[in-house]
Write a structure and sequence with these properties.
single chain; alpha+beta; Signal recognition particle alu RNA binding heterodimer, srp9/1; 2 domains; four-stranded antiparallel β-sheet; 22% strand; transmembrane helix
């Protein structure tokens, strides 16, 4: 009978490292992917929806469970099979979360949802209405923009500092294309 003890501890160390570094990984990696892989010159702002962070976090959790299953299952055949399935599901989650982003630029919006293959583009002329939802006085947070498009899609993003810097450019586009802006609380 062969000793599988050293192999088990490799997965224990990998799982522990993933568990300790997961908050940093979940915060940084989904933000870096659109800027790195989907970079387009003259883009004002890149947004990553919250659902991307959730799906990426589920993928990290599946990898941690995969390592725990191999460690506590003592590298038995059922543990290897189960962890292989979890690993493939985690890779699918990472792939799906890496595709989701929203950009705002001079020519309009480019966006892609979770697990979507094709990116979609909507020019400023395709915007039917913009709603800015203000944060109530005394509460922390940023305003939210809801951009309604003529194809029925609604894009949502928070007013982060990069958006605040580009607000004057956005106002020029509102005026040029006669886009109604609604301010709500």
């Amino acid at each position: 009978m062969e000793n599988r003890m050293p192999n088990r501890y490799v997965f224990f160390v990998i799982g522990t490292c993933l568990l300790v570094s997961s908050p940093i990984l979940i915060f940084i990696i989904p933000r870096m992917i659109p800027i790195t892989f989907y970079f387009v010159k003259y883009t004002w702002v890149y947004f990553v929806p919250m659902k991307t962070f959730v799906v990426f976090g589920i993928g990290i959790a599946l990898l941690i469970i995969c390592c725990a299953l191999l460690f506590f299952g003592k590298m038995r055949r059922w543990a290897i099979g189960g962890s292989s399935i979890l690993f493939l599901v985690a890779l699918f989650m990472f792939y799906g979360s890496s595709r989701c982003y929203l950009t705002m630029a001079d020519d309009g919006f480019t966006y892609r949802g979770l697990f979507e293959y094709e990116k979609q583009h909507a020019g400023w002329e395709n915007v039917t209405q913009i709603e800015r939802i203000e944060v109530p006085v005394g509460k922390s947070g940023n305003a939210t923009y809801l951009v309604s498009l003529d194809n029925g899609d609604v894009l949502s993003f928070k007013e982060i500092p990069h958006v605040q810097e580009k607000r004057s450019k956005m106002r020029v586009k509102y005026g040029k294309y006669n886009i109604p802006v609604i301010y709500t609380n």
